[in-house]
Amino acid sequence: MIVPKIRISVEKKRVKTVINELKNQGCRVVENVSLQGRAVDYMLVSKQGVHAVKVCLFPKRHNVFLQGREEDRIWHYYVAYAVGPIQGRFSYPLEGPPGNANKHAMNNPVMEVEEVIKTLKGKVDLGNKEVPFHPVIVFVPKIKAVRLERKPDSRAQIVFTDQFKAALTKQDAELLSSGEIEQVCKIISQSADKPQNPTSVA
Q: What's the pTM value of the predicted model, to 2 decimals?
């Protein structure tokens, strides 16, 4: 069995590997974009538009249960602990988290990414052409259980690392030219709280 720290490291590397593959295919990447106190880890600008990616790190895998509502600013995850002898791995009932667990609060990542996108939409101007933005949330590592109440009109993709590449490549319509990609990338870089240049994630 892979120990938690190694697994987290492996899955974080998987995220970077996928992004580097897309970068080699012409995608432009801006890392660690912060706007008005809200941050995303990667902005990927390609012919399909802009993917705003936020990576959510959890401390463990087998004994973490996440729950929340997309309309709430705060979500909670629970880290189960053993009481008495450990009998195999922890398991969770589908209806909710275990009784013996430490509760932790986290900011709603969907809301954070949507707020960054809203700000950028007001800055990215290509005349009559609308630039599509795609919010993507990645959970690292693949935790035990997730129960989220989604909004009916939600555009956000919430995935584990083994689903990450598919989430970034599901849009196949080519909407931006190479020149427009560079223009959008420049606007995003200069709009960040700390202006930066597109960087490599290798």
A: 0.87
How far CA 122 is from CA of 27, 171, 198, in Å, comes to 22, 23, 20
* Spatial distance between the Cα atoms of 115 and 110, rounded to a whole number of angstroms: 9
Instruction: Write out pLDDT tens, residues 163-202.
Output: 999 999 998 889 999 999 999 999 999 998 876 666 656 5
Hey, what domains does the chain have and what are their CATH numbers?
A: 4-61+108-191 (3.40.1350)
Chain position carrying tokens 């912060």: 34
Rounded Cα distance between 184 and 202, Å, is: 22
3-class DSSP state of 151? coil
Question: Can you tell me the distance from the alpha carbon of 158 to that of 180, in angstroms, rounded to the nearest whole number?
Answer: 27
- Phi–psi pair at 55, nearest 5 degrees: -100, 125
